[in-house]
Amino acid sequence: MVLFEREYIRLYWRSFSYKERIYWKRKMKSYALALVALSSLVSGCFVSQVAGADNTVVWTELAPHVEAAKAQRWTVKKVPAGAKKRDFEFSALRFHLGYYELRLVDIAESSNSMAARIARDQRSDKEFPELFELGVRAVFKTNPFSAQAIAVAPAGFPASNRNPTNLGLLKVNNHIKSGLLQKGPRAILCLNNARSGQYQFQVPTFFRIDRPNQRQLIDKCQDEVQLGPRLIEDPNSEDKKAFEEDPDKYGVEWYFRKKIDGETEKVPVYLGIPAKLANSTPYLRAALAVDEPGRMSNNKFSKEVARNAYIIVTTSPATLWDLQDLLSSPEFYANERYAPHWAVNLPGDEYATMVHINSGANDFGSGGLQLRSGLLGCGKHQFL
């Protein structure tokens, strides 16, 4: 039937005179160009609707106190002299730390205790755990905690592709799974540094392994992992003084946000990545960030005043400078009261990945790549 139709069209075309053929060729070409232009216009409208025409990130609610920014494109705003202007794509999750909390999991240990469940899910033999896929996707599906997991991302850096041993410190529930590596990544992410047990929310922070005065804080923290570098600093009062005395040397920017009374507040942002890295090799990246949302309550310990946590994964290559540019910009937070507080780099390249609620099979990155530790966002059922 198809061959008959093609032969019919060929014979019909030959019945046209030379001038008629020229006329219809020109007509068909103009129709094709119009179709391409229309296609580009529709495509452009779709992109600007998803990513925001002015670089503003579009956040969509997935669940109460959980938002996602999917398939966004970011054009780097601050381009140092001599650096290339670049854009990249990313997806991110934002969740309220009064209703959710960060948890660390030792993937190897968890796989031993949940071997039967993993084997059933992966249609594998529980007697051969070495055949298990032990990436963030497996952790998300076989969540070892009683509370619902809303997202999983990589935590510590693996020693190598063949050896998923954690590169540096990994402590879970006050049990050291891997020791501190003095020449390893420069930050220690501590999941809860609340000054009092009265706090109804988690206060994550990070410490520096090159500061002897912070070793006691590192030893005291019960859940922590070594990673880095630091994208936006979370300095103590002594560091703030050094930043303020020489802002050019230490990279201080001023961020303007609205306070709850409507007044504009000037907030310092302490940058961790120097401008010389703007031209470094771009890779797929992942990051964890915490904001300062300016929430108020009569009770300073109330869960309502907690900060938001962010897990960010780029789906096209970016430098650390590019990622810092994103996380220090008002367009990323898309809320006039939110301001950046700190941000730290997570394992990148082939390890840059995230699985979250409603992502289904469309998780970001290689969710099956073997890791030693995972970072989860979990519900806090005791406060819901």
Number of domains: 2
Mean pLDDT: 78
Strand order of the largest sheet: 1-2-3-15-14-16-11
> Sheet with the most strands?
7 strands, antiparallel
How much helical structure, as a percent, in the residues?
Answer: 25-40%
Distance between the termini: 65 Å
Q: Please tally the β strands and state the result.
A: 18
Secondary structure class reads: alpha+beta
- Spatial shape: globular
Topology:
Blueprint lengths: L1 H13 L3 H34 L8 E4 L2 E10 L11 E10 L3 E7 H7 L1 H8 L13 H6 L7 E6 L15 E3 L2 E4 L8 E4 L14 E4 L6 H6 L3 E4 L2 E3 L4 H9 L1 H4 L1 E7 L5 E7 L15 E7 L15 E7 L5 H8 L2 H4 L5 E8 L8 E2 L16 E7 L5
Antiparallel strand pairs: 1-2, 2-3, 3-15, 4-18, 5-17, 5-18, 6-7, 6-10, 8-9, 8-10, 11-16, 12-13, 14-15, 14-16
Write a short abstract of this structure.
The protein has 384 residues and is α+β, with helices and mostly antiparallel strands.
Question: How does this structure look, described?
Answer:
By secondary structure, the protein is an alpha+beta fold. It contains ten helices and 18 strands. The strands form four sheets. It has a seven-stranded antiparallel sheet. A five-stranded antiparallel sheet has the order 7-6-10-8-9. The protein starts with a helix and ends in a 5-residue tail after the last strand. The model is unreliable at 1-13 and 29-53 (pLDDT under 50).
